[in-house]
Design a protein that fits this description.
Layout (H helix, E strand, L loop, with lengths): L8 E9 L2 E3 L2 E7 L12 E5 L10 E4 L2 E5 L2 E10 L3 H7 L6 E8 L12 E6 L4 H12 L8 E6 L8 H6 L4 E5 L6 E2 L2 H12 L3 E5 L2 H13 L3 E5 L15 E4 L6 E3 L6 E3 L6
Parallel strand pairs: 9-10, 9-13, 10-11, 11-12, 13-14
Antiparallel strand pairs: 1-3, 1-8, 2-3, 3-7, 4-5, 4-8, 6-7, 14-17, 15-16
The chain binds flavin-adenine dinucleotide and FE2/S2 (inorganic) cluster.
FE2/S2 (inorganic) cluster binds next to loops.
């Protein structure tokens, strides 16, 4: 399906709430009117804290959810993990604080019209964009009960949003490195079991690169279409600095940029 262009906006949003959800992960809700009315799952925003000189560069975060009231978008949620200076400052914000927001950016996942089943695979904080995706798929005719969500992390603390996926009707399977939640081992092992049973029309994944590489291999071996959302270090987020270049596109011979050509790529077109 063709993805219509979505206009991006620079705006100042107001923090509604910013509670911790697990370990060092938080979910911030930002009121920003209907700017994200037509945003797609897999797209992202870049954030800056007004009045802060450090960090200088805006930081990218996936759209975790667009909030609607009476079918009108009123804001967005971002699920984030505290890993450094910016995310630490973000975690200290509370209701009424302001955040500069630019988006929606990037391409987003492809939602095919005739899709009936999908398997979504999330590793660590890569789970963040999959809630928006799962809820959108559930609204657009997919059969959640015949689909599946596979969540992986180091420990049970890294397994986020299980209740959101269940509320959207998807069966959830979990794998952790230490076995503190779900099956012990890699999420890709759980995923291989799930796709063996479900034979989904498509696999969507977001998480660390080694996980994405393994997901792509399994999808290719089963001839299942697969889309991967990739995280790279980004400077401008707008295609200007070339800081997020990944592999060359075979058709054009040009480098692809995660910020404008992605962050979602067809697994078959990525060179790991
Ligand atoms: C398209 C996209 C979507 C993203 N979505 C989310 C999200 O939904 N939730 C979330 O928590 N994070 C997300 N990230 C990662 C997020 O941008 C970084 O965690 C954040 O920029 C870190 O900023 P900081 O100043 O706190 O840490 P820094 O001090 O900048 O970095 C701390 C550590 O994290 C590493 N790091 C920084 N940025 C990235 C990155 N992009 N990928 C991998 N490692 C990185 C650094 O190398 C360093 O080791 C996303 C990144 C991209 C590119
Ligand atoms: S982040 Fe600058 S080109 Fe992608």
């Amino acid at each position: 399906m063709m993805k219509p262009p979505v206009q991006k906006h620079l705006s100042t949003a107001t923090v509604m709430q910013n509670p911790p959800v697990s370990g060092n992960c938080f979910r911030i809700s930002l009121a920003c009117g209907n700017l994200f009315q037509h945003a797609r799952p897999g797209q992202f925003v870049t954030l800056h804290l007004p009045g802060n000189l450090t960090p200088l560069l805006r930081r990218p975060f996936s759209l975790h959810r667009v909030r609607f009231r009476e079918e009108k978008a009123v804001g967005i949620d971002i699920l984030y993990k505290v890993v450094g200076g910016f995310t630490e400052k973000l975690s200290r914000l509370s209701a009424g604080d302001k955040v500069d927001i630019l988006g929606p950016l990037g391409n987003g996942f492809t939602i095919l019209q005739n899709l009936s089943t999908a398997v979504l695979v999330g590793g660590g904080i890569g789970i963040a964009p999959l809630v928006f995706l799962a809820e959108t798929l559930a609204r657009t005719g997919i059969r959640p009960a015949d689909s599946g969500i596979c969540l992986g992390g180091r420990t049970g603390e890294d397994i986020l949003c299980q209740d959101d996926f269940s509320a959207a009707g998807f069966p959830v399977r979990i794998a952790t490195d230490d076995g503190s939640a779900g099956q012990q081992g890699l999420v890709t092992r759980v995923m291989a079991d799930v796709i063996h049973i479900r034979r989904p029309d498509i696999i969507y994944a977001c998480g660390p690169m080694p996980m994405l590489r393994a997901v792509a291999d399994i999808a290719r071996n089963h001839s299942i279409r697969c889309e991967l959302s990739i995280e790279t270090i980004m400077a401008c987020g707008l295609g200007a600095c070339l800081g997020c270049a990944v592999n060359k596109d075979d058709a054009s011979g040009k480098y692809q940029h995660v910020c404008i050509d992605g962050p979602v790529f067809d697994a078959g077109k990525l060179k790991f």
